Amino acid sequence: MSLPENTTVLIVGAGPAGLTAALSLAHHRCHDFVIVDAVAEGLRMSRAVTIHSATVEALASIDAADGLLSQAIRGKGFKITSRSSQIFVAKFDSLKKHSAHPYALYIPQNVTELVLGQKLQSLGVQVQRPHRVVGMKQNEKDSRVTDVSFEDGQVIRARYIIGADGAHSIIRTIAGMGFSDPDGPNAAENALVQMVSADVTFEPEPVDPFTLKGYLNGTVFSGNFFFFVPFGNSFNAELTGDGKPTTKSIFRVGCAIPGKNGEPPRAPPKEYIQKLIDTYGPACITSDPSLNPRPVKIDQLVWSTRHRSHSAIADRIFTRFGAAIFLVGDAAHIHSPAGGQGMNLGMRDAIFLTEAITKHIQASAENPDGDDAILQEIAEARHARALEIIGFTSTLSNLASLTYDPYAWWMPFSGASFRDLVLRILGGFDCVQSKVAWGLSGLGRR
């Protein structure tokens, strides 16, 4: 498809952050933008599954929340369990005094992208595919314009460029923006740096209360963490695996893989996922009769993947490369999936940054040589927020990775045992439950 020769804003990448950026620009009456993506069609796998309260609020502020609210499961809370009993629960209804959206939305990422894409289409905007960026250079005639070249030979001249093109961002690389772990190259050596995720159905379906729809369930194990979310039949049409929709309830499962266990397969097979469930999962979804009086096994493996869960952040998320260059989403920061914060932060970044861009566009219309103070201020604020989230998720990951190995022969107590004891005690206090729900919601870290 032919691209325009000029645009005010070019968005590179049509994942949740890129689509949100486009919707935010349209909401702020900036219609001279183009959104491109390198692949021919949108995501077909579920990946991120949680949209927290602060992100719902941000999406509602640009009139982009209704479609998600109508399709998502409204999460009631988050449970931490051992393999056989509940340790801690945080219920999101405590957020009612802080937000009009006192819940998390549980919805697969591909459905999120589909809904946001449909909203964008209703505004008359189409994602241009497939168009892969291969180069950028400052325009020879205008020092505040960048010529962006694509693999097919086309070129767009843009005044603002939003890099929403993932952890391996070509925009970030060409613009010369660094990307590294803020705690140094060896920070992740002892952390849970690998993760396996899958969407599965079971035979028979689990019936334990842990599997009740509306809760994200996390199971702690020695040095590891396992989670699952019951989707029920809410997304069977979108989570088709081999193209054949299932009529059974679908569950998202995920498990951290300690580095000492080796690298998991690229697309873990059913047998691999079953072994993870039987080794680390809650008793109610295992096939081991010694743990589960009503054993269940994976019936259909709808989708599976592996990914790393280390942290990294761009050394800055705004720079001048002729045009004003911004990074959002995984292009700007990645971190542990603990707490489900990554996609949320990227979407909120997109909304706040595009609001600043529209203000800068208006100011530049009156003074073309004006400074970039508006842009620099918001970029520094979002960079600081990303560092805060990285610290928060690293703490959660470190707590999850504690083992039940005794501290020493003279102290037969472990870090994990102490963690579980503290959580069981503190979990009896409403104020503690509310604080955990507040921390996960993002309302204090918009």
TrEMBL record:
<protein>
    <recommendedName>
        <fullName>FAD-binding domain-containing protein</fullName>
    </recommendedName>
</protein>
<keyword id="KW-0560">Oxidoreductase</keyword>
<dbReference type="InterPro" id="IPR050641">
    <property type="entry name" value="RIFMO-like"/>
</dbReference>
<dbReference type="GO" id="GO:0071949">
    <property type="term" value="F:FAD binding"/>
</dbReference>
<dbReference type="Pfam" id="PF01494">
    <property type="entry name" value="FAD_binding_3"/>
</dbReference>
<keyword id="KW-0274">FAD</keyword>
<dbReference type="InterPro" id="IPR036188">
    <property type="entry name" value="FAD/NAD-bd_sf"/>
</dbReference>
<dbReference type="InterPro" id="IPR002938">
    <property type="entry name" value="FAD-bd"/>
</dbReference>
<dbReference type="GO" id="GO:0016709">
    <property type="term" value="F:oxidoreductase activity, acting on paired donors, with incorporation or reduction of molecular oxygen, NAD(P)H as one donor, and incorporation of one atom of oxygen"/>
</dbReference>
<feature type="domain" description="FAD-binding">
    <location>
        <begin position="299"/>
        <end position="386"/>
    </location>
</feature>
<feature type="domain" description="FAD-binding">
    <location>
        <begin position="7"/>
        <end position="201"/>
    </location>
</feature>
<keyword id="KW-0285">Flavoprotein</keyword>
